[in-house]
Every structure is written in structure tokens, then in C-alpha cells.
Amino acid sequence: MTDPTVTDAATLQTILAETRTIAIVGASANPARPSNEIYRYLAGTGAYELYLVNPTITEIDGVRVYPKLADLPVIPDLVDVFRRRDQLPAVLAEVLTLTPHPRTLWLQSGLRDAQVARDAAAAGLRVVMDRCIKVEHARLS
Q1: What Pfam families is this protein classified in (predicted)?
Q2: Are 134 and 16 in contact (CB under 8 A)?
Q3: Class of domain 9-78+96-140
Q4: Where are the domains of the chain?
Q5: What is d(CA 106, CA 126) in angstroms, rounded to the nearest whole number?
Q6: Which of 3, 37, 83, 127 has the fewest CB atoms within 10 Å, measured from its CB?
Q7: Residue 63 to residue 49: CA distance in whole angstroms
Q8: Cα 37–43–49 angle (5° rounding)?
Q9: Could you tell me the sign of the dihedral formed by the alpha carbons of 53, 83, 134, 14, in that order?
Q10: pTM score, whole prediction
Q11: How many C-beta atoms surround the C-beta of residue 29 within 10 A?
């Protein structure tokens, strides 16, 4: 089976341009964590409405953090994932409970799971793996 992940610059640029809402799964209040750095970067662009997801914290700098995707007040266009690889199937299962489904599943740098990518693509999601949304946004904007 062919790799269903998005890798070309034109499609990545389209995803970033069409996206209005982003859920950051695995958001951290620790400024040293990549998820916190990327949250701050994306917030600084002013281009996106951001929703933070982490069941272990309730806020980051006064911004509400939701325990799970189903608790968000919107269905995000894109779900940006900062979780361990072994947790990716559970994250995808949670994404697929949302109706309608988000348009894009973005697995941050270092995250790759071919089965999760195939299952997400089969459900109609665009899949980006092993890429940093901050790096791609800065490169393609």
C-alpha cells in the first residue's frame, strides 16, 4: 500500500492556509517542552484559533486546557499531536469519534506510525507525519 501521508510543499501550504482551528494534543505548561513552544509560536501568528488538550492540567497562562478532544467547544480543522508513539492509535480513535472528523491529523517531528496514517487516511483525514508544524509554517508562509 502506498504511503498516504502528505509530504509535498504545495499540499502542506494548502493545509496551513485552509486551517482555522487547531487542537494541540499533549499541550504542556512547561516552556521547555516543544508543545509549549509551538503553541506560543502558533498563537503569535494570530492565524489560528487554538485549543489545548491535556488531561493532567487545566490551564496554560490563563488559557483553558481541555481533558480530551470531545470536550472542545468546536471540531478542530487540524489535530496537532505531541504524544508518545504508542499512544497514537488511541489519539486517532479519539479523533475519529468527532463528527464531523477534523480534516487533518498532524503528527509532530519524531512521530510516525504507518497503520495510524492508513487508518486516518481511510477515514478521510489528511495525514502529516514526522514534521514540525512550526517549521513548516515558517518555511511556507
Answers
A1: CoA_binding_2
A2: no
A3: alpha beta
A4: 9-78+96-140
A5: 8
A6: 3
A7: 12
A8: 130
A9: negative
A10: 0.96
A11: 18
- Nearest of 64, 49, 51 to residue 98 by alpha carbon: 51
Q: Give the whole-angstrom CA distance, residue 130 versus residue 76.
A: 20
What phi and psi values does residue 24 have, to the nearest 5 degrees? -105, 105
DSSP 38: H
* Residue among 32, 31, 66 at smallest CA distance from 50: 66
Q: With H, G, I as helix, E, B as strand and everything else as coil, classify residue 60.
A: strand
The total number of residues written for the chain in this structure: 141
Q: Which residue in this structure is represented by grid cell 488538550?
A: 53
Q: Which residues contact 136 (CB under 8 A, 6 or more apart)?
A: 12, 16, 128
Which strand ranges, in their side-by-side order, compose the sheet holding 49-53?
59-60, 63-66, 49-53, 21-25, 78-81, 104-107, 126-128
